[in-house]
Amino acid sequence: MKRVKSESFRGVYSPRRFKLSHLLLATAGFYLVFLAFKFPHFIEMVAMLSGDTGLDGALRDAGEDVSLSGSLRSDMLGRKLEDEESQHGPASTTQKVPPGEKKNESKRVQQVPFRYGRISGEIMRRRNRTKHMSPFEKMADEAWMLGSKAWEDVDKFKVENIEESSVNEGVVESSCPSQISMNGDDLSKANGIMLLPCGLAAGSSITILGTPQYAHEESVPQRSRFTRGDGMVLVSQFMVELQGLKTGDGEYPPKILHLNPRIKGDWSHRPVIEHNTCYRMQWGVAQRCDGTPSKKDADMLVDGFRRCEKWTKNDNTDMVDSKESKTTSWFKRFIGREQKPEVTWSFPFAEGRVFVLTLRAGIDGFHINIGGRHVTSFPYRPGFTIEDATGLAITGDVDIHSVYATSLATSHPSLSPQQTIEFSSEWKAPPLPSTPLRLFIGVLSATKHFSERMAVRKTWMQHPSIKSSDVVARFFVALHPRKEVNAMLKKEAEYFGDIVILPFMDRYELVVLKTIAICEFGVQNVTAPYIMKCDDDTFVRVESILKQIDGISLEQSLYMGNLNLRHRPLRTGKWAVTWEEWPESIYPPYANGPGYIISSNIAKYIVSQNSKQKLRLFKMEDVSMGMWVEQFNTTMQPVEYSHSWKFCQYGCTLNYYTAHYQSPSQMICLWNNLLKGRAQCCNFR
């Protein structure tokens, strides 16, 4: 077990003004937690939750002695774990288990009795304004208030109406046109996005009429470092993307197809057309067509078409094989021998020249024709379905004149949670055990991630250790602005008994509140020596995780995961962190958020500090956990920092403990591989 010394961290933070209440209210068949934060002169919000339904049964153990295969994107390997000698801080020590004491047997914790609570209108009216609050506190304040109102609306909403109302922006079959058209002006007003309400179907086609703009200069600082000059390059490129606009809230939509013609070329100095997919900001392996024809092998063809056709770099089209002389060509025609001259086309795009691009959805992949000629084909990737392609986005250096979409899907049952969720007793969670368990797993999930939760239930939550209640797993979900979504979430929670509903309005910046809820639930409602946090797109190899924690003494405080040392905050971009939010130049040591484990004494410390309004919060939950662990390490007792790359931050890799950014289809694929004893990664989407 590798130990990493923690680096002392001295940050400046404003005092906390929140207080997390106890979990309350038992209702049959589901968990609902109202966690409350107390603001001065304002409110102490109390909460509700719980109940469980049981299920007998288990799947056979897949076993650990299986070979794993997979790949990790090389550009993600730059995060090298450093353990510098200059760091200072309490050294981690290993304590042995006293004789007579067995591993994984901890003292029984008394479960918190569930109570009934109500937030009265009078308390709401006593709310003082937030002039003394930090931006984070104001955001949380607003989220709690909106969440309280949203939950009241759920109680008023009739569950039977869910079947008739749409949980996805009112999508019904009558709003699924078979064809759509837009002119360039309308597309520009819509920010370059054409909505395809019910996605595509096999045979659907999209025709785009446009003109590439003339190249312009862009600065590439990296180029100036390696070449003499100012780093200016000529750029002319545009993107055509099929996006899943309805698959998630508060996050980038998945790119089911990314088509990127680069007319002036890129690092290859040749015109190129790049194809790819992207899921939750993680790109797949690009397919690049640069004029070199791809193989005609059966496994490389897409519906019988090459993935990349041949073209020349210049604008000339040669219809006769240059290797053959005119005399030989004439003689072959004279004797009647069939002549098949080689046809070499030029790159299909040119600056200032109109093009007609047709994108067609085939059986096995997308096919791109330009000017009536097949140019490229891109096979569908597991984890992406053409029905989810509910938006066409066109951006970059191009003027669009018109877009026509025909033979579109006229229905989309998968957009309905009623179709996504399988209400079968097979997937119900066992009730909370009254005896100690080995591990509690809290899974962070977004409100509308019905398919992600269903995929988790049908895969690693079917592990025998979970079905036998030796390990307990629960989803932690906040509320959505639309009452139909919340009502469906409540119905899902009531049936499966594996969801903890947090009554604040969900948003990315408040994910840290879910992490606190996991800690509180893990120490107050179950008896487990270790608590694991993961995301709903994380596949957990439960058996491997248990083997890791079984090797740790119960007397040792533990922080296990894919650790980062001396990471610096990003000060620009979407994930920028201001100096006010984080005044230091580096973060404390922290484990990546997709999957990490802490010992229960650390979780108890977090809950205690929060109840005393002393817990420091930061919008990045994994960094917050690293900060809390460092405080515990400094003020309470030494912590063993255990690092492993097998808690994958990006995708899946050899001998993984957790695989991240896994789509529902990939979850099923990974689980099926485990059951077959192969345990292979499913890296292609």
From TrEMBL:
Topology relative to the membrane: Single-pass type II membrane protein
Cofactor(s) recorded in Swiss-Prot or TrEMBL: Mn(2+)
Tagged with keyword Membrane: yes
Family matches, as SMART domains: Gal-bind_lectin
Domain Galectin: 192-406
Recorded GO CC terms: Golgi membrane
Ranges annotated as biased composition (Basic and acidic residues): 99-108
A Pfam family it matches: Gal-bind_lectin
Keywords: Glycoprotein, Glycosyltransferase, Golgi apparatus, Manganese, Membrane, Signal-anchor, Transferase, Transmembrane, Transmembrane helix
Region annotated Disordered, chain positions: 80-108
InterPro entries: ConA-like_dom_sf, Galectin_CRD, Glyco_trans_31
Location relative to the cell: Golgi apparatus membrane
Any one GO molecular-function label of the UniProt entry: hydroxyproline O-galactosyltransferase activity
Annotated pathway: Protein modification; protein glycosylation
Biological processes per GO annotation: arabinogalactan protein metabolic process
Transmembrane segments: 20-39
Lineage: superkingdom: Eukaryota
Function field: Possesses hydroxyproline O-galactosyltransferase activity. Transfers galactose from UDP-galactose to hydroxyproline residues in the arabinogalactan proteins (AGPs). Is specific for AGPs containing non-contiguous peptidyl hydroxyproline residues. Utilizes UDP-galactose solely as sugar donor. The addition of galactose onto the peptidyl hydroxyproline residues in AGP core proteins represents the first committed step in arabinogalactan polysaccharide addition. AGP glycans play essential roles in both vegetative and reproductive plant growth.
Stated family: Belongs to the glycosyltransferase 31 family.
UniProt-recorded name of the protein: Galectin domain-containing protein
